[in-house]
Amino acid sequence: MPGFLKIDLWLGGAFVLVPRVFYDHRGYFMESYNDRDFRELGLDLHFVQDNESWTEKAGTIRGLHYQISPATQAKLVRCVRGSIFDVIVDIRPESPTFGKWSAVLLNDRNHKMLFVPVGFAHGFQSLVDDVIVSYKVTGFYSKEHDRAIRWDDPRIGISWPLDNPILSQKDRNAPLLEEAELRF
């Protein structure tokens, strides 16, 4: 029996993984990644890098980020501390769900993980102070291929839960989807 429940999302190729968590009087234990279990679920992924971000203040938005070819990345995202509203946007030009978004609540209590396929932009908003997000990627970071789309693009229409977000200069100045470079 695999240690993960896979829940497919309505945007093709994206899904949530829910690990088996074992609780006792000391706390809990879980596997956040198991290559054998992933293969049993049909997920033959090769992760090459683990990343971690700390976000100090609630309301902060990081994203919407992606990398273009030849340095594309799929991601497996989880919230290690705190709680986030985790968002993906399908930016594959030929996709029937192009420009559509979906969101998942990830936090340190539900232990869910979001798989973000190549061809999706990804971002999140911290719902509380002092958030740590960890994610595995299938491609190395490449500054030359790093791209972003505006968090408030009206064509996409994401309903972020908290108003007046804290943003980086990069995210504040990101292009709209219609102006973005989309090579996967």
Protein described:
There is one protein chain. The protein has 184 residues and is mainly beta. The protein has one domain (4-20, 46-179): Jelly Rolls (Sandwich), CATH 2.60.120. 5% of the residues lie in helices and 41% in strands. The protein has two helices and 13 strands, in the order ββββαβββββββββα. The protein has helices spanning 35-40, 169-172, and strands at residues 4-8, 15-19, 21-24, 27-30, 49-55, 61-67, 75-81, 83-90, 101-107, 113-116, 120-126, 131-137, 146-148. It has a six-stranded antiparallel sheet, with no helix packed on it. A hairpin with a 2-residue loop joins strand 3 (21-24) and strand 4 (27-30). The longest helix is centred in the first third of the chain and has 6 residues, at 35-40.
Keyword list:
single chain, mainly beta, Jelly Rolls, 13 strands, 5% helix
Secondary-structure map:
Elements (H helix, E strand, L loop, with lengths): L3 E5 L6 E5 L1 E4 L2 E4 L4 H6 L8 E7 L5 E7 L7 E7 L1 E8 L10 E7 L5 E4 L3 E7 L4 E7 L8 E3 L20 H4 L12
Antiparallel strand pairs: 1-2, 2-10, 3-4, 5-12, 6-11, 6-13, 7-10, 7-12, 8-9, 8-11
What is the CATH topology descriptor? Answer: Jelly Rolls
Walk across the major sheet and give the strand order. 1-2-10-7-12-5
Low-confidence spans = none
What percentage of the residues does DSSP assign to strands (E)?
A: 35-45%
Number of strands: 13
Order of helices and strands: EEEEHEEEEEEEEEH
The total number of structural domains is: 1
- Largest sheet report: 6 strands, antiparallel
Give me the secondary-structure category: mainly beta
How many individual helices?
Answer: 2
CATH superfamily: Jelly Rolls
Shape: globular
- Provide the gyration radius in Å: 16 Å
Average pLDDT score:
96
Q: What's the CATH architecture name? A: Sandwich
Q: Which CATH class is shown?
A: Mainly Beta
